[in-house]
Amino acid sequence: MVNIDQRLARPNAEIAFADTGGEGPAVVFVHGAGMDHTMFDTQVKALTAGGYRVVTWDLRGHGESLLAPGARFAAADALDDLAALLRECEIDRAVLVGHSLGGNLAQAFVRTHGKRAAGLIVLDSTWNTGPLSGFERFALRLAAPSLAMIPARTLPGLMARASAVTPSAIARTEAIFARMPKRIFLDVWRATVSFVEPDPDYRCPVPLALVRGARDRTGNIATAMPRWAQAEGITEHVIPDAGHILTWDAPEATSRTLLRILDQWDLGNPAPERGE
């Protein structure tokens, strides 16, 4: 497990993070809603061994990062936290690897801070600017109210079974979801939805890769990510036998895919060592 032993003071929050340092290209992981940095443990190890400088952190109110009493999770605050984290680590440009909510946040960061991104890898996340059908708009509006009706004691298990497919990944996901109070989880969910702003003419200004678990059935991801790949003119990477939490369902396959993508981008890694 990666030890995130550094702290960054932020308004109404304290962000826990780790930075492996080194001279390799910087890669920053951004985890999904209700999760924390541990979802990337296998990938952090693989990329570090491959010569990359890796930064991993917990979003405010998640894992070891604190949210001040009474403060609410908001998308704008999370975006500002990511910008502050790059400044704290003195990283001018980084490849952002975002999962689910982290993918939405990374997309929004690239759109507003494009010069700070060397590339964007999105894992099992909704396309922020993609067109939505009438049904998708309806489902998006209904998501948070529907979750609010589910009893707090059953919500973690329900969400875990919808997110992961292997027994071990389901158990780990339920345990980590259970640590977050329901009221914060609902705020995080609302923040996720707030990132969706259809703008069909927008195209990503930096190298982009899309990675999805073949058995991801959450939201519209299974249909939106292929449409997104087609619109951007890129090939979608689909991980077999993985659901929404692909980093735990298929950790080694996900790591190999990330390394292949980063290698193809030729980011100037000085001394790559591949352990496939």
Automatic annotation (TrEMBL):
Gene Ontology, cellular component aspect: membrane
Domain AB hydrolase-1: 27-255
Pfam family, one: Abhydrolase_6
Record-linked SUPFAM superfamilies: alpha/beta-Hydrolases
Alphabetized UniProt keyword annotations: Hydrolase
Protein name, UniProt field: Alpha/beta hydrolase
InterPro entries reported for this sequence: AB_hydrolase_1 (IPR000073), AB_hydrolase_fold (IPR029058), AB_hydrolase_sf (IPR050266)
Organism of origin: Nocardia mangyaensis
GO terms for MF: hydrolase activity
